[in-house]
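ingest -> validate -> predict -> emit
validate: passed (alphabet ok, no gaps, 1039 aa)
predict: started
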Amino acid sequence: MRCASCLTDNPDGNLFCGHCGASLRLLGHGAGRTGGATRATAPLPPKWGELKIATIFFADIVSSTTHIAGLDAEQAMEQLQPAVQRMCEAVEVLGGTVVRTMGDGILALFGVPHTVEGHARLACEAALKLQKAFSGNQLGLQLRVGLHSGQVASDPQAFDSNIGGGVHGSAIHLASRVVGVAEPGGICLSADCLALTGGACEVRAMGPHKLKGIAKPTEIYALVRVKSDAPDQHFHRAVLSPFHGRTDELVTLQNALHRTEQGQCAVIGLSGAAGAGKSRLCFEFAQWCRARLVPVTEARTQLYGYATPLAPVLALLRGWFFHMAPADDDAAARGRIKTRLSRLGVSASDDLALFNEFLGVADPDGMPCALAPKARRARLLALFGDMVRYTGATTSVIVFEDLHWLDEASAEFLDVLVQSVPGTRTLLLFNYRPTYKAHWSALPHFHEIHLAELGAADTEALVRELAGPHPQWQDAFALIVQRSAGNPFFVEELVRLLLEGGILPGAPGPHDLASRVRALPATVQAVIGARIDRLGATQKAVLHICAVIGKEIPLPVLQRVARYLAGQIDREMDFLCEAELLEFLREIVGERYFGFHHPLIQEVAYNTQLRARRASLHAAVAAAMEAHYSAEPDEYAALLAFHYQAAGQPVQAARHLSRAAQWLGATHSTQAMKHWRHARELLADQPRAPDTDRLRVKVGGGLLQLGWREGLDAAELNQVVDEAVAHASEADRGWVQSILVTQGRILHGNGGSADDYVNTVRRAIELGSSNPGRAALLQVTLSQAYSWAGLSHEALAASDQAVPDIAAVEAAERAALGFNPERWRLALRARVLMRMLRLGEAEDCLRRMEQIGADGEDPVINQIALHCKIEIAWCRRDPDQAQRYAQASADAVRAGSNPYLRATGKWFDGIAALLVHDPVRANCSFVEALELIRTTRVAVDIEDELLAWSAECRALADDTRGALDQARQAVELARQRCHRIPECRGLIVWGSVCAKDGSDGAKLAARLFERAKQLIAQTGAAICEDGLRRGRALLAPPA
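emit:
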C-alpha cells in the first residue's frame, strides 16, 4: 500500500505509514499497491504536514490555581471552561486556529494551517480583543498573552484532528516562554513578531530577557495598541492580462526594431523585480513583431539552471538555427545539422561530429569528434558566432528570458551572441531581475529598460477591468490600489482573492470592508499560499509533486511519480491550468509539457512541504526522470544528481554528477570542475564500499585531470591526491599512476620543483603497468619532467623508451590528455634537441609533427613547436623567420584567447624584436608576458626563463641595474624550481654585467661563469655556450 503523503510503499495491513506516519486508512486494501490496480477515487493526502511561517499565540489565566482553590472538579470546570471558550472564540473570529486547550489557557496559530497575510498583526488584534473581553470580569480573572513568529512544522500523524493537529518547532517553545514574561492583563511579543507587524503596532520595549531553554537573550516588547494607519508590506510578481502602463516601454522596443531593420543592431535588457511585468512586455512585443512577419525566437532559462547546464542554448540551437522538428529522429536531426552547417561553409567531419554530439544525436556508426576539450569549446563558440552573423542577414528577434537563472556554461554562449550581433539585423531582447549583472552591459549597442511600478491611474484601471463595473465597491478599489503599490500581479491576486472569498459581491459596511481588505495577504508568497490552501486534497498533492519536478513538468514524469493518481491526473492538471497555477507549454511527439504560471508559485508550493516528504518525492522524481531521459542520460545527468541529492542519496547524486562533469568537460571545464568538486563533497562522509571507492577514484581523477587546466591550489591538490590514491590502491594501479602524474604536473605548473616532478613520475613508473600504451605515455611524461629540470640526455632517453608503444595509447587516455601523444613526444624532443644545438634533428622532429597533423589538437602543443622554431631562428640569427613564427603565435592567440597562449605569444614577440635590434619593444613584450603570468598564475613554469630573456634584453639596452635585477631574480627562481637551463642563462647575464664592474665584480663574474659551465656540462645546453664565451671574454686582460 503506497502512502499518498510520502509515496513510501507499506505492508497492506498497516494503518499508518512507516516512514512519515500518515494514516493509510483512506487508501483501502487495493489502492496504491506497487504494480496493483489503482482505485478510481484517489487517496486524500494529509491535510497537515507542511512548513509555514506563523505567529504562535499563548494565553493563560493568571494564578488559576488560586482561583479554584477549595472548589471540587466540577466547580473548577464551570469557572474556567467558559473563560477558555471565550479565548478560543476571540482567536477564531480573527482567523486563528486553536491547536490545543489546557485547563486554564490555549495555544493557537495564525497563518497555519491556511496561509493568511498579516498573521502577526491579526494575532496582536486578537490579544487586545481578548484582554478587553476579560477586563473587569466578575470573577476577577486576568490573562497573560505571549506572541512569537517563526517557522512551524505540522504533524502528519494528527491530520484528522478537528482543531488543527500537532505542530512542532523551536518557535513553539520560545512562544511558551514569552507568555511568562507578561504581566497580569498584559501582552508580550518577541522582536520577530514585531517585525512582521510591519509597523502596525505601538509597543513598549522591555529589553532583552533570558528565557529558559533559549540560548541567547530575547528582546521582548509589551503591546500597547494596533495602529489604524499602519503601512502595508508587499511583494511583486507579474500578470499576463490585462496589459496596462507599459506603452512607453513597448514603443521603445518597437523603435529599436525599426533601427535594427536599418542595420543598427540592438541588445535590450528588461530589468525588473519579480512580477514587474517583464514577461508580459516581451510577449506583447513578440506578438507585434509576428504581426509584421518578423521572425521571433524565444528561449528561457530554468529555475534549476545550474543543474541543467546548456539547456537554453541547446533549445535555442535546435529550434532557431537547425530548425529541428519535435518529431525528428536522430538521423533526421543529423541531416538538418549537416544541411544548415553547409550554409556556413562548414563541412569538416569533426565539426559535424561536434554538433551531432553536442545536440545529443551522435552517429553511432560515425567517427567521434577528435577535438580536444578546449579546442571543442572554442570551435563551438566560434561557429555559434558565425551562426548569429549568418542569420542576421534578415531582420529577426531573439527573446531570452530569466537570465538571473542562467548557468555559467550557457553564459559563454550568451556572451558570443551579444558580441556577434553588431553588423546584423538581429534584435536581442533579454529580461532579468535587478540582481543580474552582465559584464557586457557597457557595450554601445546595449540599452537597459527598468520596469518601475505602475502609476495610480493604470493600477486603478487594471483593478476595474479585473473586478468588473461595480460603483458600490469604490472604497475597496481604492484600498487595492493603495496596497498593491502598482504591481500588476499583486493587483490581480488581491482582486482574485476578494472575488473567490465572496467579499466583493456583497455590500459590507465601510469599516468592515476596510478591515477585511487589510487582512488579505500582503506579499505575493502569502497570496499564492492562500490559493494553494484552497485546493482540494488531490489537486494540492499534484501541485506539490509538480513543484518538486521543477519549472518544466513532462507529463510522463508526473504520471510515473503519481501512479496512485493515474486515473485523475489529466483532470486535475486541467483544473490547475484553469486556476492559473499551472499552464500548458507544448506537446512534443505526443508528450505534453506543463509549467508553472509563475516561478513563485512553484517556490511556495515547494517550500511549504516538509523535508521528509520532499525527499521522498525527489527520490521518486529522480527514478522517473532516469527512465524518461534514458535516451539523453548525459544532458540530464546534473538534473538527476540534483534530485538524488535532495532525496538524501548522495552516492547516486555523485554518480550522476560525475557523468555530467565528463559530458560538460569537453565544452565548459569550469562548470565541470564545479560538478567534480560537488561530487567529492557528497562522497566525503559516505562509508567505505567497493562501488563507492571506485566512484571516489573516478571523481578524484576527473578533478585532477581538469585541475591541470583550470588550476588547483596546493592544499586542495594534495588532499584530492591522498584521498584518491588511498582508494585507488585497492582498485586500479593505473589510476594511481595517473593521479601521481597529474599531481606532479600541477605542482610543477604552479611553481613547484622540476626534480620533484621527475621523482613523482618515476614513482608512478615503478608501480609497473601491463598496459604498453600507458607505459609509453609515462615515459613521455618523464621526458617532459626531465626537460623542465634541464636534464637533456635523460629527457632524450625517456623519449626513446616511449617510441615502441606510443601508438598503443588507448583512446580514453588520449582524450584525457587532450592531444596526440606522438606529437607531444616530438614537440618535447625538438625543444630538448634545440637547446643542445642539434638543430637539424630538432627541425626533423618538427617536420614529423606537421606530417601527423593537428586537427582538434590543444593549441598549447602547437605553441611548443612555435617556441622551438623561434629559438632555432634566434640561434641562426634569422629575424625574418622569427617574425613569421611570432606572427603565427599572435594569430593563435586571437583565435583561442588562452592566457597561456597570450603569455608565450608576448615572449615570442620579444625574441623576434631582439633579432631586429629593438630592445625597447622586446622589453615591453617580456614585461607584459611576466605580468600576465603573475596575474593569471598560468604558465608559471616559464617565469624564470622569461626573466633571463628580460635580463639579456636590458643588458643589450645598457640598462645595467635592470639587467642585474632581472638576472638575479631569474637565478633565484630557477634554483627554487630546479630549472637548470634558465639558471645557467641568468648566471651568464649576471656575470656579464659584473665583469664590467672592476676587480671585485670580475671575481664574482668568474665564479658565476664557473657555475654556468658546470650547468652546461650537466644539462647539455650547448645553446648557452656562446653567451658564456662572450661573457668570459669580458674578463680577458686588454691586449
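Residues 247-450 form a domain with the Rossmann fold fold (CATH 3.40.50).
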